[in-house]
Amino acid sequence: MCAAVLKNWREAATLMLVHGRKKIQNRILDNLHPSQALQQTTNLADHGLELLVLKRSMKSSFMPNKYVFPGGIADDSDFSLHWLPIFGATTPELAAHRFGFAKTVEEITPMFYRLRPEQFSVIPSEIAFRICAIRETFEEAGVLLVRSVDQSSYDFNASAAYPYHFGEDHSSKVEEWRHKVVQNPLAFLTLCENLEVVPDVWSLYNWSNWLTPHFDTVIDKEKGKRYDTAFFITCVGEKPYVAEDAKEAVHSEWVSPLQMIEDFAENRVQLAPPQLYEASRLVNCNTVDALLGYLQRQARQPVERWMPVMIKCADGVIFTFPGDSLYPKKPDLEGEHPTLKREEKLQELKSQSSQLHRAIIQTPPVKDGKPTGNKRIQLECTIDLPYGHVAPSFEG
């Protein structure tokens, strides 16, 4: 019996690490229309955002060669009761104080809400997935987000996270401990005990929740690998030393959300729909302070699990999201039916839709076996996202 394994998918967590950089100057930004929520906080300060992205190995079992945020599958150790003394949560009262900010009771986020076997229910599921995101970020990128036991206030606030530094032997210590944690995730608990630190679960904010869609065509090179993934976001006060594990991740890069999107549109990198979507949301925000302010205001708002539903049409592919006119009232979560197909072209389907919340991928004509141009990527969102979440803005 496992904590995070279900019949049709496994549960996972990923972490979007954001750092400040010089303000981005690009013609595309001039045409964007930020949501009202972020317009209230965005200013003309001289810092923009950049995200840590990792390129997965060709040998990776999931999304090979794609650029992703650090993260991975939850392990039973992330739910271990042995975390309680490390967090100083040895009584119900102390546990409520330490973890009280993570009281997700909304059924729209099943991975936080659902019942688990008793041995995996000692700490809130949301806390366990935050631990998972921090552990996986250390495994894949060598970045350790923790707080000192002595100095930790255990308060949920909008302050930035500060990556741990081992001192003069930092790189060798990272490799030493990473090897142990990769071999046995429970070693992450031992690492925290030895360093007298706790995973900085308080600096992470809920951002989104994506369920991998199912496919029944050749596009699905990873058939059967599906994940219900919690996306967390944190702002780091200083750019950390990044060391890829050279197994799952072979390359790392700090890149602006806009550059991430442009590189994808021009076929320089491969992105899955969630990464493209989330980068396009962050394009709306121009400063770390603005982002932190938005995250703090949204901290008590739930996130809804989304599963993109693919529709193959005459001249491209549409990935619809909840709220779109073409999104099924009852999406096929279990993958019992074939991929949806329509005879219309993309523009025809758009004209038939009163509400747009979709990613459109229009492939260029092929001549002599080669595409005659770049694929056209378009994210369309004419609806207000629930709970005040910021909408995407991009057309490339």
What does this molecule look like?
The longest helix has 17 residues, at 125-141. β15 and β16 form a beta hairpin. The chain has 12 helices and 18 strands. α9 packs across α10 (273-282). It has 2 domains: 10-305, Nucleoside Triphosphate Pyrophosphohydrolase, CATH 3.90.79.10; 308-395, no CATH class. The chain has helices at residues 27-30, 36-39, 83-86, 92-99, 110-113, 125-141, 170-183, 187-195, 257-265, 273-282, 288-298, 346-351, and strands at residues 10-22, 47-56, 67-68, 71-73, 146-148, 197-199, 205-211, 227-235, 249-255, 305-306, 309-313, 316-320, 340-341, 357-362, 366-367, 370-371, 376-381, 394-395. The protein has 396 residues and is of the alpha+beta class. Strands 1, 2, 3, 4, 7, 8, 9 and 10 form an 8-stranded mixed beta sheet that branches. A 6-stranded mixed beta sheet has the order 13-11-12-14-17-18, covered by helices on one side. The chain is 25% helix and 22% strand. One of its GO terms (cellular component) is mitochondrion. Keywords: Hydrolase, Magnesium, Manganese, Metal-binding.
Please outline the helices and strands:
Elements lengths: L9 E13 L4 H4 L5 H4 L7 E10 L10 E2 L2 E3 L9 H4 L5 H8 L10 H4 L11 H17 L4 E3 L21 H14 L3 H9 L1 E3 L5 E7 L15 E9 L13 E7 L1 H9 L7 H10 L5 H11 L6 E2 L2 E5 L2 E5 L19 E2 L4 H6 L5 E6 L3 E2 L2 E2 L4 E6 L12 E2 L1
Parallel strand pairs: 1-8, 7-10, 11-13
Antiparallel strand pairs: 1-2, 1-4, 2-3, 2-9, 5-6, 7-8, 11-12, 12-14, 14-17, 15-16, 17-18
GO molecular function, one term: metal ion binding
Keywords: Hydrolase, Magnesium, Manganese, Metal-binding
Protein name: Nudix hydrolase domain-containing protein
